[in-house]
Amino acid sequence: MNVLAVSLLTWTSLDTWIVVTAALTAMSCAVPGCFLVLRRQSLMGDALSHAVLPGIVLAYLAWNYGRHAGWLATADDGTRQLVLFFGAAVTGVLCALLTEAVRDIGRVEAGAALGVVFTSLFALGLLLVRLFADQAHVDPGCVLYGNLEMVVAVPFGTTGIPLAAATAGAVCLINLLLTAVFFKELQLSSFDPALATSLEIPARLMNYGLMAVTSATVVTAFETVGSVLVLSMLVVPAATALLLTDRLRTVLGLSLVAATAAALLGHSLARLLPWFESAVLGMPHAPDASTSGLMAVAGGLLFVLAWVLGPRYGVLRARRDRLRLRRRIIREDLLGRLYRQEEPRPTTIGLTIPEFASDTQHSPAAIRAALDHLIREGLITARGEDYRLTDSGRHAAVEVVRSHRLWESYLSQEIQVGPQHVHASAEEVEHLLDERLKAELAAQLAHPVEDPHGKAIPGRSGE
Amino acid sequence: MRGRRRILSVVGTLATVLLLMTGATFAAETGPGSVANSDFWRALTLRDYNTRVVLAGTCLLGLAGGVVGTFMLLRKRSLEADVASHAAFPGIGLAFLLTEAFRPGLGKSLPILLAGAFATALLGIGCTHLLTRIRRIREDAALGMVLGVFFGAGVVLLTIIQGLPSGHQAGLSDFVFGKAAALVASDMQVLAGCAVVVVVLCGVSFKALTLLCFDREFAEVQGWPVRGLDWLLTLLIVSVTVIGMQSVGLLLVVALTIIPSAASRFWSDRLPVMVAVAGGLGALSGLLGVLVSAAAPRLAAGAVIVLSATAVFGVSLLLGPRGGAVWEWLRRRSVRVRVGLLDLLRTSYELQERRWSAGEVPRAAELSDFSFTADLLRQVRSWSPARVASLLHYGILVGVIRPDSAGGYRLTEEGGRQALEAVRQHRLWELYLIHYAELPPLHVDSSADLTEHALHPQQIEQLERLLSGTIPPLPPNPHAPIDHAPAIVPPGGVA
To answer: How far is CA A197 from CA A104, A186, A205, B231, B249, in A?
Structure first.
């Protein structure tokens, strides 16, 4: 417990900066990520995050060469970052172009063409890294895993802000600005490329633009979260947001929120993990865990959370809706049954639960719960095992029976289904017809008074 | 033609491979660590037992990757291998941690690590299938999410393990980048054994997998357990990626399943041949990669193997007998030249056409009375000087044109015959368009220019039958001045 307290109480400004940098990085990735996911190009994100490596190495070498040759007057980090962005964007577009070429020349399936191109480019990048290791300070391990904890220690000029946070913030701003300027074009070319083309929006150009922006964004994220984990920053927040809403603007906003939450949760988990290791698992050594890795995991957790709890498409919501429908069906079946029992004459014979259960295949427990519900609502009364409709219960039951018999009449008159076949369908449809549909059915059948079995159709026209 | 092309393809491929190997030797000699030269020859001549084992193992791995990858390619599931390899990463860490917790010291055992990798890779693929069942998540997003999140978990476990006192020498990061040339023989034997099992499984279920790839619905109707077969394919691809991780690295092992199978498409359209070629190209990539990385140990072995595969793919793309870019380019060029020559012959006839009255058919030999110059041709057709020159050159080469003493050119008798035939086809199509498609004469010329070369002899016969009785043996030029054009009434009397 002591370690837990320590790990929470020793939250320093460094931790804050880690979270801020991580959140800004994740947000800058989430913006192009939304469009990648919408355009079903998520794997292009994967490909780009690998494929830009040779571009970065070459750009770095070029920058280094330019600095030594004295072409670059200001040898600061700003120009370096710009050169790296440029190298990455060019390689990203090159990757997209090569993929198209392999697909078109070789008639190779698009996914495989992507696989051929990005693995080759990545391999080339790794080779270049090894070859020029002494000139380009690109550590393959660092490119892969990122090193958030180290990166935030480098300040931006004389300000107290970490350089990485400033860069990520700038990229995030640029991405948001670009999205705002090209919002209509992006939206149209993502959802309806054909319409976009007919409106003279260059869909191909938008595509290459998106690739270039994604590549440049991926590069900024390399130092902080690493090349593979960038993919989870690109895809996971966008997918999480898509589970929660339908509107593109809201998707963008929610993906930013999801990105920030993943960063915060990820670093908190990284702080808590050593405590977990020693206190719960009893490990003698409690090594630290990588924040960027845990950010990816946290993003995944948030996605699962949205999937389960989502207000519109969540698993729980769907299950609750199904359960409610099933309960309503039992109640309506019960009302219909009671109505039919007293239809010839008000009887004293009650309804027994086992009998009803065997007739309808509802479980006795569910039937008992439905009966209790109906009693609470005042639709039926119970004296021991003897259940009777109240007046308001009779009104409700009339609606169910009316639905049932109207549908039977409709099937038999309009679609000419034999009377012996209509009951099963009506058993299902009776729960689904609303007032308006019932009125339309009745009007189309010229307000019938009897169903195909000769039973009276109760309700508006009957009474 | 086709046989010759195949032979040329194979010869070209071998030449390129030799060139690459020479290049690698050169690089090894001049590259960093030039002492590698002798290493390279040691590797090439297979002097070390370990090199032999590693070489055999990597070739087998390439073979298995190519074979399984071909089925995955046809099922459009190529990138699942990428997910599998990334999802295997946490499995390695988990297996190591669990084994160290219960049996300290045993964590580095390869079969245990591979079992863990296999388990989480399967779990990852299972997760993608589960995620695609959510209506709002497309397949690509599902693959991307599983890849990223599982790899994130792997990175977390790796950092934890590296913080442990026993973790530093665990060598788990070798799984990430691969270390083909440095693998010990005993490990390689395990991997090679697995690869052989994979290939044998593919061979045994070849018929079922073929059916699955080409017509899943039909296979289902025929009573094949298609879902089971899809899972078999998943098991196979997961096996390949897991056993390939140590030599190529988990980041790049996907390349060994995708690149050879994509390359095999340039060699055949028949599945058995494709599978065999993909396996062969995979093995070749492994061979090249191991040799080069044995010579230059500083280079990342996985990257070298993958780039060898890329080179093999590039050669296939250029020289493959089925739609290789070079053959396609040559074919297109030869069509362009033949079409141009026919146009030239027709033009040379039209330039001298007024020597005969309408309806009169000149004999082929008579056409060579007329001398024309390159400039004259360029006045009538919008050809560049270079194109006219090359067409004339080609025409002389095949014997339809000969230069005359006046510095101009004349048709030979064969050239005259071909010119008359070309004119006839062109005008038949023009007439057809005028009378049956009711196009105005102004518009038919350009269409006929495009179509005349594509007309099959049978179609020409059909056209003749259709326009029969209304046209002389050589149809007149519909664009000619009125007094030259006789009234033509097609059989239906449409005109």
So the answer is: 21, 12, 11, 41, 42
A63 exposed, middle or buried (CB, 10 Å; 0-12, 13-18, 19+)?
buried
Distance (Å, rounded) from C-alpha A429 to C-alpha A434? 10
Q: State how far the Cα of B324 lies from the Cα of A71, in Å rounded to an integer.
A: 44
Q: Given an 8 Å threshold on Cβ–Cβ distance, is A228 in contact with B144?
A: no
Can you read off the two tokens belonging to residue B22?
Answer: 């020479």
In angstroms and rounded to an integer, the radius of gyration of the C-alpha atoms of chain B is 33
- A32-71 residues touching B, CB cutoff 8 A: 37, 40-43, 45-46, 50
Within 243-262 of B, beta carbons closer than 8 Å to A belong to 251-252, 254-255, 258-259, 261-262
DSSP B273-328: HHHHHHHHHHHHHHHHHHHHHHH-TTS-HHHHHHHHHHHHHHHHHHH-TTT-HHHH
Which amino acid makes up residue A110?
A: A
- What number is the ipTM of this complex? 0.84
| Alpha carbon distances (Å) from B323 to A169, B69, B410 | 48, 20, 38
Token couple for B28: 């090894």
Cross-chain Cβ contact A127/B317 below 8 Å: no
CA distances from B374 to A256, B334, B382, B409, B426 (A): 69, 21, 12, 8, 22
Q: Do B262 and A126 touch (CB under 8 A)?
A: no
- A122 close to B (CB below 8 A): yes
CB A235, CB A276: distance < 8 Å: no
Closest-CA distance, B183 to chain A, in angstroms, reads: 19
Question: What is the CB neighbour count within 10 angstroms for residue B230?
Answer: 16
| Nearest chain A Cα distance for residue B220, angstroms | 24
Alpha-carbon gap: A413 to the closest alpha carbon of chain B (Å): 38
Give the count of Cβ contacts less than 8 A between chain A and B.
223
> Taking the complete model, does pTM exceed 0.90, yes or no?
no
Task: Flag if B258 and A123 touch (Cβ within 8 Å).
Answer: no
| Nearest chain A residue to B320, by CA | A106
Beta bridge partners of residue A162, listed in sequence order: A155
Query: Which residue among B163, B300, B306 sits closest to A120, beta carbon to beta carbon?
Result: B306
**Apex A97 CA angle, A132 and B305, nearest 5:** 45
Per-residue confidence in pLDDT tens, chain A, 463 aa: 555 666 666 778 888 888 999 999 999 999 999 999 999 889 898 899 889 889 988 888 888 888 777 776 655 667 777 888 888 889 999 999 999 999 888 778 888 999 999 999 999 988 888 888 766 666 666 677 777 777 777 777 777 788 888 889 999 999 999 999 999 888 988 888 888 888 888 888 888 999 999 998 988 888 788 888 888 999 999 999 999 998 999 999 999 999 999 999 999 998 888 888 777 777 777 777 888 899 999 999 999 999 999 888 888 999 999 999 999 999 998 888 888 887 776 665 667 777 788 777 788 888 888 888 998 988 888 877 778 888 888 888 888 898 898 888 888 888 888 888 888 888 888 888 888 888 888 888 888 888 888 888 887 644 4
DSSP string, A347-374: ------HHHHHHHH---HHHHHHHHHHH
Q: Long-range contacts made by residues B311-314, C-beta under 8 angstroms, separation at least 24?
A: B311/B16, B311/B20, B312/B17, B312/B259, B312/B260, B312/B263, B312/B281, B312/B284, B312/B285, B312/B288, B313/A116, B313/A120, B313/B259, B313/B260, B313/B262, B313/B263, B313/B281
Q: Are B296 and B31 in contact (CB under 8 A)?
A: yes
d(CA A260, CA A292): 13
Task: Compare B255 and B106 and report the one with higher pLDDT.
Answer: B255
Contact state of A127 with B261 under an 8 Å Cβ cutoff: no
Q: What number of CA atoms fall less than 13 Å from residue B431's CA on the CB side? A: 27
